[in-house]
Amino acid sequence: AYRLRYYDAVRMATQLGLVASLLLHLISNITPLRIALGIQERKNLQIDVLLVLAILLLVAGLAFVVYYIRWQVIL
Fold first, then answer.
1. Mind listing the pLDDT tens digit of every residue in the chain (75 residues)?
2. pLDDT for residue 66
3. Helix, strand, coil: what percent of the chain each, to 5?
4. Taking a C-beta distance cutoff of 8 angstroms, is the pair 65, 31 a contact?
5. What distance in Å separates the CA atoms of residue 46 and residue 29, rounded to the nearest whole number?
6. Phi then psi for 36, rounded to 5 degrees?
7. CB 20 within 8 A of CB 58
8. Is the backbone of residue 62 left (phi > 0), alpha (psi -120 to 50) or beta?
9. How far apart are the C-alpha atoms of 23 and 75, rounded to whole Å?
10. What are phi and psi of 3, to 5 degrees?
11. In sequence order, which residues have a C-beta less than 8 Å from that of residue 60 and are 6 or more positions away?
């Protein structure tokens, strides 16, 4: 049996805050990753990593919004 809780605007804001904090954490650790991998050209790796992160976080944020909208339609 599953017990669902009401998914309101506060829970959605919390989830979007989680996505934002994940973004901040990943962006702040690009430089240590570059150093660990021995990559000297900063621009190439940084652009690739930021592109992947942007797509990942946009999909996650969109999923939260769609989930919120579906909850509003159900109730």
1. 666 677 788 888 888 888 888 888 877 887 787 778 777 676 777 777 778 888 888 888 888 888 888 877 876
2. 87
3. 80, 0, 20
4. no
5. 11
6. -65, -35
7. no
8. alpha
9. 31
10. -115, 115
11. 19
